[in-house]
Structures are given as structure tokens and as C-alpha cells.
Amino acid sequence: MKQERCVPRHVAIIMDGNGRWAQQRNQLRAVGHRAGLKTVRKIVTYAASIGIKVLTLYAFSSENWKRPPTEVSALISLFIYALKREMKNLNKNNVRLNIIGDISRFSYQLQQMISNAEQLTKNNSGLVLNIAANYGGRWDILQSTKKITTKVLNGEITLDDITEECLGLEMSMHELPDVDLVIRTGGDYRISNFLLWQIAYSELYFTDILWPDFTQALFDEAINVFNTRERRFGGILTQEHSC
Asked: Which of 1, 31, 182, 194 is deepest in the core (most CB within 10 A)?
């Protein structure tokens, strides 16, 4: 009897390769980022259709500020464009949007747009779509540590109260299922400071395909590979693979 495919609850994607995709076509890197947005639309729709509960996309890392100002400006403009254009469609399709990262560096206008988008979709019960914007895994751990330290200094907790669970409750996405599968497109084999805490036991899948060329079929391939992995979480496998 054929075993039913297991769909991961939480998938995180490092969407790499937009700039190289454009350069291969002798176009500006910004063109690649716009092409990447089209892929985001397709993958978000498909993820919701196959029963994935949470999808987290690495849109803008805290290190991306080091890129040329013109490219940074194009990325921010595209983010604003996506918020304006996509929100009604996300809300219509019962998607809850959540932005993770240090948004304080963004303009007041963009911060308000983020707040409005999250407020609009907060009661939706379908796919949770996390967009990591000005996000870094080290920043996430640091901000969590600061919150815990403040509680100690205020006498709310003691040093002995600090556990992994305690620290984890201050991390981004602490209320959501752990990340099951991390996909990175673009051919590089690294995590690039993405969700360092949250992917401690995630399965990793790397592909040479550049993000604008990533398709539903390739997403399926990653999930199929995920289904071949034995997830022991540091222990001994005692039962059949499960999500």
C-alpha cells in the first residue's frame, strides 16, 4: 500500500538568485526582483492549496543594507508595491500576513503599511505567511536575550528561570509550529543568518534553480525529498517518518 505523502507544516524559503537571473538576461537586478515577486505569488498560492500551515520567506536580510543603494531602494520599493497590490488578494484567500524582523529601520510610512496589513489579516485562519524583512537570526536571538535580561533586572524572573523554552518564547514566530523544511534556491549551500534558532532540527534542501525559475513542480520535489528524511530530533528513530 502506497504511503500518503507527508506535507510539512512549516516551510521556510531563502529566495536566492533574483539578481543573477536578471544579469543572465543582461537586465538590471531590480528586474530579477520583480520576477521573483511573481514566483512568490505562485508559491504562496500553491503552499496554501496543498495544506502547508506556515510559509516563511526571506525577503530582505539585515545584511542586505550592504548592497548598492540603488538595489536597496528597489527592494524597498518592491516591498511597498507588494503590500499595496497583494493585501486584498491575501485577505480574500484567508491568508494571515506576519512581518518578522527589525522594522524600525524602515520609513514611518512603510511601518504603518506593515501594521495595517497585519491588522487587516490578523483574524484569517488559513495559511500564515511570514515575510522576513530586515531580519537576521543573530538579531532575533539578541532581541530575545535583551527581553529576558530586562525581565531579570525588573525582578520578574530569576537567572534560574531562564531556560531554552523561556528564551524561545521571546523569539520571532514563537507561537507557530517549528520549521520543518528549509529550501534555498540559487545554488549556495548556507543558511545566511536565517532563523538560526527556529531551524535547529529542520530538514535542509538546496537547489541550483534561481528563485524566479522556481516552480510548483520543484516545490513538490523538495517536499518529496523531505518525505525521504528520517527526523530523529537528536534521538533514535522509533516510528515511521511523520511531520
From this structure: 182
Determine the CATH number of domain 10-136+179-228.
Answer: 3.40.1180.10
- Tell me 173's DSSP state: T
Helix (H) or strand (E) run with residue 96 in it:
strand 96-100
Domain spans of the chain? 10-136+179-228
Instruction: Point out the residues that are catalytic.
Output: 16, 64
Task: Give mean pLDDT in consecutive 10-residue pieces for the chain, a chain of 243 residues.
Answer: 77 97 96 96 97 97 92 92 91 96 95 96 97 97 97 96 96 96 98 97 97 98 94 58 50
Measure the CA angle with vertex 56, ends 15 and 242; round to 5°: 110
Is the whole-model pTM more than 0.90? yes
The answer for residues whose C-beta is within 8 angstroms of residue 128's C-beta and 6 or more apart is 53, 54, 55, 95, 96, 98, 176
HEC sequence for 5-54: CCCCCEEEEECCCHHHHHHHCCCCHHHHHHHHHHHHHHHHHHHHHCCCCE
What is the arrangement of strands in the sheet containing 203-206, beginning at the earlier edge strand? 96-100, 128-135, 54-61, 10-14, 181-184, 203-206
Listed residue (191, 198, 200) closest to 140, CA to CA? 198
| Cβ neighbours of 226 (radius 10 Å) | 24
Q: Which three cell numbers stand for residue 224?
A: 518529496
Q: What is the pLDDT of residue 231?
A: 76
